[in-house]
Amino acid sequence: MAFGLRQAAILTGLALALGAFSVPVQAAPIPNGEVRLQEGGYVRVTAIGLPPLGVTERSGAREVARQNAMALAQRRLLAAVLDLPVGPGKPTVRDRLEAKPKARERLRDLIARARVTGQELADGSAEVTLELPYSGPGGLAEFFAVLSP
Fold first, then answer.
1. C-alpha Rg value of the chain to the nearest Å
2. What average pLDDT does the structure give for the chain?
3. Of 46, 52, 116, 137, whose CB neighbour count within 10 A is largest?
4. DSSP label at 52?
5. 2 falls in which pLDDT band (50, 70, 90)?
6. In sequence order, what E strands does the chain have?
């Protein structure tokens, strides 16, 4: 009987080591969004923009609300990316940018190219979601490589 239990333990250990019983990776919540950093992952944030008071033209108010939401979402996305850990020792993107100021322009471009989804809400406000992919061309992994020492 002991041989059977030992054999089962060895097989279970091998299966775990080889990833046969993979645990689904959860997205970590951040203020106003979530982060999932691995292959196929992303950083996603959401913001709501309000229309200006006193504007009677509905289409103009909608556009201003969308612009407000976009600006807030970009600030939130930048804040989320700056706080991400990069490499061994867990320095953050913010720490690495101090040592590599030329990478700031690359980060600015990365934020500007984030995937945008949005919707108009019933009260005239607008919701914008920005998402940066982790992998692939123009993804965070590529940007992290630029930050490497």
1. 22
2. 78
3. 46
4. P
5. very low
6. 28-30, 33-36, 42-49, 115-120, 126-133
